[in-house]
From TrEMBL:
<keyword id="KW-0238">DNA-binding</keyword>
<keyword id="KW-0805">Transcription regulation</keyword>
<dbReference type="InterPro" id="IPR015300">
    <property type="entry name" value="DNA-bd_pseudobarrel_sf"/>
</dbReference>
<keyword id="KW-0804">Transcription</keyword>
<protein>
    <submittedName>
        <fullName>B3 domain-containing protein</fullName>
    </submittedName>
</protein>
<dbReference type="InterPro" id="IPR003340">
    <property type="entry name" value="B3_DNA-bd"/>
</dbReference>
<dbReference type="InterPro" id="IPR005508">
    <property type="entry name" value="At2g31720-like"/>
</dbReference>
<keyword id="KW-0539">Nucleus</keyword>
<dbReference type="Pfam" id="PF03754">
    <property type="entry name" value="At2g31720-like"/>
</dbReference>
<dbReference type="GO" id="GO:0003677">
    <property type="term" value="F:DNA binding"/>
</dbReference>
<dbReference type="GO" id="GO:0005634">
    <property type="term" value="C:nucleus"/>
</dbReference>
Length: 127
């Protein structure tokens, strides 16, 4: 599983909230105000600004996620605006990951980023 990654950063350490774990929300929030480090380049941040055809929602991008079990998957990263706050969201297949890994409200997670061939990748660690 050698990735030859670079630019390793701790993005956020957070306690899973009820909304992170409710199936109908289907996302893990990464509030910008709680982030320890920005992990996206300016170009990647700009690409997350592009809107869906409905003109309301942001498109997002697929990135590689290494789960606590060391399994890899592709997950959707989106930007959400909540009032005056911006957050990143890990979306589909977040519900499946949370269920399969036995994650629960109150669990402490760390999300680390690194780059492989200039593409962002994430590692999810359950403490």
């Amino acid at each position: 599983m050698a990735k030859n990654g670079s630019d390793v950063k701790l993005v956020i350490q957070k306690k899973l909230s009820k909304t992170d774990m409710l199936g109908r929300f289907a996302r893990l929030s990464i509030p910008k105000g709680q982030m320890i480090a920005e992990f996206l380049s300016e170009d990647e941040q700009m690409s997350l600004q592009q809107k869906e055809e409905d003109g309301v929602r942001y498109k997002g991008m697929k990135i590689q996620l290494i789960q606590p079990s060391l399994e890899e998957c592709s997950i959707s990263l989106k930007k959400w605006k909540q009032g005056s706050n911006n957050s990143y969201m890990l979306c589909s297949p977040w519900n499946e990951i949370a269920k399969n890994k036995g994650l629960e409200v109150g669990d402490i997670l760390q999300l680390w980023s690194f780059k492989v061939d200039h593409s962002p990748c994430l590692i999810l660690i359950k403490l």
